[in-house]
Amino acid sequence: MEIKKHYDVIVAGSGPSGIAAAVMAARGGAKTLLVEWQGSVGGISTTGLMSHFTGTCDSRLYREILDRAAEKNYFDQARTVAIDPEMLKITYYEMLEEAGVDLLLYSFVCDVIMEQGTVIGIVTSGKSGLVAYSCSVVIDGTGDGDVAYKAGAEYSKGNPENGLMQPATLMFKVAGVDMERAVFPGSFETKVDTDRGELQALAKELLPAPAGHVLLYKSTIPGIVTCNMTNAVGIDGTETEDLTKAEIQCRKQIIPIVNFLREYVPGYEHCYVISAASLIGIRETRHFKGKYTLTEQDILEARQFEHRVVIGAHFNFDVHNLTGSGLDKTGVQAKFPQPKGYTIPYECLLPEKVKGLLLCGRNISGTHMAHSNFRVMPICLAIGEAAGTAAALAIRSQVDVCDVNIAEIQEKLHIL
Q1: What class does CATH assign to 3-159+284-412?
Q2: 173 contacts 219 by C-beta, under 8 angstroms
Q3: Is the C-alpha dihedral spanning 18, 368, 231, 181 positive or negative?
Q4: CB-based contacts of 340: which residues, under 8 Å, 6+ apart?
């Protein structure tokens, strides 16, 4: 197949990790292409209607994105983790354009071009048919690791005991909420007592399974609340049939959920649906085997790796019930014992046996339990920041990403 164009760096996937990777690679002087299969950038943070950036990380780029998005808010320009999807899209587009990133939407990475165990390009599928691009470095920010999978990188899926993966969710928004009276249970462990009973217990009893919990979040717009309450279990997000099943199942749950809110939840008596995500939220699929695999113990010890490229990462073990609603028995939210931030080493971004490729976002090398912590968007964004920085340095030094001077990555990221 004829190569249409050559790039220094190609980033597949434009979720927060892919956005960060593309921006940092281009800012580092690399000629960069960002490929996205949807019609807009941002992934779950925008088209997925995610309510807010949850968890945290010590990332300069993350703070820049929050500040720039907040400037566009019509109601309050203070930095917030709450997301206005349309303003965040505009922020992403601005940053990509300023950095000089070439952007290709409506294009799915359907294959890779390999040479002696090294990824040297990709093949995209879209309205133009099959189109090939060559490059020196590919960064896989697809979430599911589509590029790494096609390159033959070793991986596992889900919980090692049973192969089950965390459930899928379709986010949606309701308007007409009385914000002065409304309640906002933000975790499975948040209990809210009302005249009609405790809300989590009522949801488990009355909502159609596998829905059965109440998670409600303020938006940046008065009277509008984001609902994280649909649920589809037994879903493999790498299978087209399962994605279709999850989409339909979650959409069928929306009306019963809204009726429940109107009947049982204070402040929601007159709420109504105004939008639902155009992208199903997939929490977990492939875990790739890297040169190092981050573990639950690394997080609990807040381990400070010598080769750290992500610092100050903090969240809990957010394992949703693999077979039903609510929190899995292995998950820990309110009682998570580690208050300190942990680090992620560069080796987690390097697939063990494939060169010319960086893992980026939730597909990096980590165990099922560790993944439940680092899969959140601020940490994934910081991983992308590191990947893009490393790719640009590899281009500048004319070495494979495996051989980049890690001290130089740390210097660029202001990591001590």
Answers
A1: alpha beta
A2: yes
A3: negative
A4: 302, 314
Q: Strands 357-359 and 129-140: what pairing?
A: parallel
Report the 3 state secondary structure along 207-241: CCCCCCCCCEEECCCCCCEEECCCCECCCCCCCHH
- List the end-to-end C-alpha distance of the chain, in Å, as a whole number: 45
Q: How many CA atoms lie within 13 A of 214 on its CB side?
A: 26
Instruction: For the chain, give the percent of residues with pLDDT over 90.
Output: 98
Q: Sign of torsion, CA 386 392 394 396?
A: negative
pLDDT band at 406 (very low <50, low <70, confident <90, very high): very high
The span from the CA of 207 to the CA of 190, in Å, is 18
Core vs surface per residue 355-387: b (16+ CB within 10 A) or e? bbbbbbbbbbbbbbbbbbbbbbbbbbbbbbbbb
Residues 285-300 have pLDDT tens digits of 999 999 999 999 999 9
Report the predicted TM-score, pTM, of the whole model to 2 decimal places.
Answer: 0.97
Residue ranges per structural domain of the chain: 3-159+284-412, 172-276
Give me the helices (H) in 71-110, please: 85-99
Mean pLDDT (whole number) for 390-401:
98
pLDDT digits (tens, 9 = 90+) for 175-227: 999 999 999 999 999 999 999 999 999 999 999 999 999 999 999 999 999 99
279 SS3 class? coil
Q: In whole angstroms, give the CA distance from residue 296 to residue 365.
A: 12
Contact status, residue 6 vs residue 135, Cβ threshold 8 Å = yes
**CB distance 203 to 324 below 8 Å:** no
Assign residue 398 a region: left if phi > 0, alpha if psi is -120 to 50, beta otherwise? left
Evaluate whether 163 touches 154 at the Cβ level (below 8 Å): no
- Residue 386's Cα: distance from chain center in Å? 15
Q: Does the pLDDT value for residue 416 go beyond 80?
A: no
Q: Please state the rounded mean pLDDT for residues 226-246.
A: 98
The predicted pLDDT at position 23 comes to 99
Q: Which of 261, 10, 288, 248 is nearest to 149 (CA)?
A: 288
pLDDT in tens, 56-108: 999 999 999 999 999 999 998 889 999 999 999 999 999 999 999 999 999 99
Given a contact cutoff of 8 angstroms between Cβ atoms, the answer to whether 33 and 43 are in contact is: no
